[in-house]
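Figure S4 source data
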Amino acid sequence: MALLFRPYPTIGYRIPGTARSIPVTDITRRFTLTSFLQNASVNFDEYYIQDGETPQGVAYDYYGDVTFDWVVLFSNEIQDPYYEWPMSTENFDSYIKQRYGMQYAHQTNHHYEWITQQQQTIIENGIQRILPEKKLVVDYTTYLTLTAPERRAVSIYDHEAQLNDDRKTIYLIDLHYTQIFKDQHPFIFSEGAFVR
């Protein structure tokens, strides 16, 4: 994760009670992708993060270069790789135990849903399409008025698991743009520039 902050500028921080200053990363400013890369014509590939996979691992597997971990994060607008990146199964279970207690998380409802449309598979002109489930979050009183197939109580555990699963689908800037990154930001990829 050391490479994450390499694109950030540094500022002088005056140590309180002294006349000495040290350079520190200016976390109030951040690297942004150029307007060229934000253009709608730029290709992004969908990528599904495997259990326990890190930004460095994704960067190595996809770009062949761990120094592209920050590209993986920024192209998905991930500012905090510790809380916005999906947790592994082990870390997720530890998080649930610590925050809620496993039994409480499974037995306590987070919210209630009204399933307005079940997931369906339809065939039109020989083409199979899947219509996704549609649902609304409702209060408990409304939930009680619905029939069993129309309603769902979602536990805290299931809600947190869904949030974590949603983070597993990311988008990566097409491999062909890597040379553009290296040309526009050579200081990030130069030899010996690693932050330790």
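Figure S5 source data
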Amino acid sequence: MTKLIINADDFGINKDVNSAIMAAMDSNLCRDTTLLVNFEESEHAAGLAISSKRKNNIGIHFNLTEGYPLTSKIKNEDRFCNKEGLFHYKKDKRIFRLSNSEKIAVYEELRSQIHLCRKFGIPVSHADSHNHIHEEPGLLFIFIEILKKEAIPFIRLSNNMGETTFINAFYRMSFNTVLRLNKLNGTDYFGSTSNLNHYKNTFNTNDVIELMIHPGQLKNNQVIDVYSNENLSIQLPLIIREFKMMSYSEILHK
């Protein structure tokens, strides 16, 4: 059967999300999640993962768009932070190049996020990013350099299942090709549940797909997605039965 990884984003952003993600994992709706380390509840999230013996299924959710940065230099970069020192980049236009000071600041911030994640006791099995910031062309090779230095084996592909414009599709294909050439892709496809439901391609037996979900709250013991408002406790079992569930850590150890 085609293999399926379901990753819950935003672990650590608040306690409601932390609880919803843990409930999803307890119900085998997903096996992986990625941790936002620059929010107050990130250490709480790491503790939940460790106490439930799931630390090897936790990746890092790199963040340059929301909350407080961990380092000082990036606070002086207007593109990324406002006068209060908060991340404020809204992805309203592509980042094609960075100044030298921006490169230094971004590099320092991203490595600090990895180091804090590991300080919490999380080895970091894979990576993705808040608001898909790692897909920006001016940032891509910084991410690649850091991943290799920090021995993080996988980072999320750009969405190659959803409908988009020709220009976006070409960029996503190019982005994914660069990841594959650098042997940093753990999957063959990535998208959301709605992308999967509407994707017309016939997957091959050896293909690996990653689905992104955002468990945000629990209602009557049901896991609800914070963005789509979908009932994941009902929707995901219908999807899962068509695939072989696995995790990023299983790919690494095969």
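Residues 223 and 233 are 5 Å apart (CA to CA). The domain at 3-252 is CATH 3.20.20.370 (TIM Barrel).
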